[in-house]
Amino acid sequence: MSTNSRSHDASALSLDLLLRNLPGAVYRCLNDSHWTMEFLSAGVEKLTGYPAAAFFGEHPIAYASLIHPDDRAQVLTDTNQAVREGRPFQLSYRIITASGKLRWAWEQGSAVVDQDGNVSLEGFIADISALRRADLLAREQASLLDKAHDAIFVMDMHARITYWNKGAERLYGWEERQVLGQRMSDLLCDNHAAFSEALRTAIEEGEWAGELQQHRRDGTTIHADSRWTVVAGDPDTGVQQKILVISTDISERKINEERIHKLAYFDALTELPNRASLLDHLRRALLGSARSRKFGALMFLDLDNFKILNDTHGHAAGDMLLQAVARRLEHSVREADMVARLGGDEFVILVQPEEEMLEAAAHQAETVAAKVVAAMNAPFQLADFMYAVSTSVGVTMISGATDTVESALKQADTAMYQAKAAGRNTFRFFDPDMQAKWTARSELETGLRRALRNHEFILYYQPQLDGDSRVIGAEALLRWRQPNGELLYPTDFIKAAEETSLIVDIGRWVLGTACAELASWQGNPVTRHLSLSVNVSARQFVEPDFVPMTQEILAATGVDPHYLKFELTETLVVTDFAHTVETMETLRRLGITFSLDDFGTGYSSLAYLRKLPLDQLKIDYSFMRDVLTDRNDASIVRSIIALGDSLGLQVIAEGVETAGQRDFLSEAGCFVYQGYLYEPALSGERFTEYAASLH
Ligand code: C2E
Ligand code: MG
Ligand code: MG
């Protein structure tokens, strides 16, 4: 026998053995209401608990009677219908076993007709109880997932959604049928980079948890805490690797958190950060400063007459004032700095440590404090009346290297009481040195204002001579005659004047006075050929009305502008080159000439020097002192002279004190001099006498 023919011969199988091992029963029965058995294999015992023999004999069990009464009618109907239509049938129903338990049976069969036309049924019955249980469990789990409050969905490794529970429907507003096959990233995510990062982490590490900003179907934002778990695939069954996503909506929690944060860190009345928030920021500022070694400042503010308002106009008015004060304070500080309310009428300003030099930080703090004190001086509109307050400010410098939160607060508080003691409506530094410096500065400022009002300034004129010792002009130099008769020199007060912009008013006075003097020279044959140089500070030159102001003075005094020279310094060039050049050209068209003062000490660059419409370079007097002994100074002076020559500019040397210096200069090619060798700065009267004496 060949192998082939042997494998086709079913009769060669041990049919009996096969039937006994089958996970179910093979049967043949009559198509009656009992399903009277004609053949039934041994497997039926496993399913029903009755041996096959029990279905035969004198008192056979009717198989149909084992079918659960609720299922029986349906089973018979389905079978009969299939038989009538001549097709196989498939049934599943419950069996009540010998021990009274329920089992699930699955049956497949068909009708067979014998030679006599009798119909019987043949088929196979299997016990599918285990499968049913698994199925039920799966359904139950699925319905549990649907009942879950969380949004649960599954996506494949390309982020395409393959499962979507009811919670996801509730959270995102999309129904399952709308989302299946769509990518999570396209459908829900706002930040694609964050999504990709999460996906990468999940793939690499098997899971990812975090907060992804997502949106609902209607576009509104959701904050969701998500946990992604990669579920391994099974190559045997073809089940692919997937990602199970469970997302909890935390939008509400976020809102609550923010509300709680606001309550905890902000003052409800003014909406300014409160004490807790201040302490937090101060601690961080000190930590930062310890690393960066930069200085900042802490200021304590207390309204001077707040209690009176509360007592006379009631608390509502008091609240209104506090709110208005808060807004004004916020406007008085930079974005980075912090205004907090400690309670009552106490406020604090934290100036972030951003200055490397204590001096610069103190200067900045002083500016802020002065601004705040001034800002509080304008009256406040409260409901239907105006109310004037003032504030006392205590300032302490802070540095992470030396201060703690407690020490800084205590110092600022102490300084605030000093400000109160000093008469209120002012500020005080905690550090006495700093306070002394500031007091001196503020006295100087007050003095300067008074000087302007009381005509305490005077102009002196220092002669400028040519190589033949003829006077060709003068430089106007400012002096301050104090009420006690003492004469102050510009080095003592010009810097302060520049920092407070008082220099603008002073400069206007200087120009007016100088032009009046020049006008009188021009009416005198002895002095009519002389030019007058006037120092113009950068701060003054960039004033928008500098040109019209100059024109006004020229018109009022009637001077010939060709004899007027402005001395500018290099700081101007650094400030705003284009604007400087433009203003210079406008003034030059009027006839005014220009000298670059203190040349050699600044950021001289040939590139800008060439472009400036200058007439004269003025060698700074610092080079003159050692020009005969110091080879460096000598060569700098020679270079400046050569440079002026090559640019076609006149070169003048100031600070010429000796004939030796003058000889050096003339040998090097400089023929205009100013200095003590000739005369110091003289009063107007003395200068005219001097000019006449040389005439
Ligand atoms: P500057 O414009 O360089 O003025 C020259 C300074 O050198 C003047 O000092 C002058 O008195 C001084 N000086 C003159 N001859 C000699 C000398 O032989 N040896 C030495 N060692 N010094 C000499 P002053 O008058 O104290 O002025 C100082 C600075 O103040 C001026 O320097 C100028 O930058 C500024 N300044 C003076 N008047 C005014 C003004 O009206 N407006 C502005 N914005 N600044 C002015
Ligand atoms: Mg000068
Ligand atoms: Mg100078």
Q: Which SSEs are present, and which pair or pack?
A:
Layout: H1 3-7, H2 15-21, E1 24-30, E2 37-40, H3 44-48, H4 63-66, H5 69-85, E3 89-96, E4 102-113, E5 119-127, H6 129-147, E6 151-156, E7 161-164, H7 166-172, H8 176-179, H9 184-188, H10 192-205, E8 207-215, E9 221-231, E10 242-249, H11 251-265, H12 275-292, E11 295-303, H13 306-313, H14 315-332, E12 338-343, E13 346-355, H15 358-377, E14 380-382, E15 385-387, E16 391-398, H16 405-421, E17 427-429, H17 432-453, E18 457-466, E19 471-481, E20 487-488, H18 490-500, H19 502-522, E21 531-535, H20 538-541, H21 546-557, E22 564-568, H22 570-575, H23 577-589, E23 593-599, H24 606-611, E24 616-619, H25 621-624, H26 631-646, E25 650-654, H27 659-668, E26 672-674, E27 682-683, H28 684-694
Parallel strand pairs: 16-17, 19-21, 21-22, 22-23, 23-24, 24-25, 25-26
Antiparallel strand pairs: 1-2, 1-5, 3-4, 4-5, 6-7, 6-10, 8-9, 9-10, 11-13, 11-16, 12-13, 14-15, 18-19, 18-26, 18-27, 19-20
The structure holds ligand C2E and magnesium ion (2 copies).
One magnesium ion binds at residues 475, 535, 567, 597.
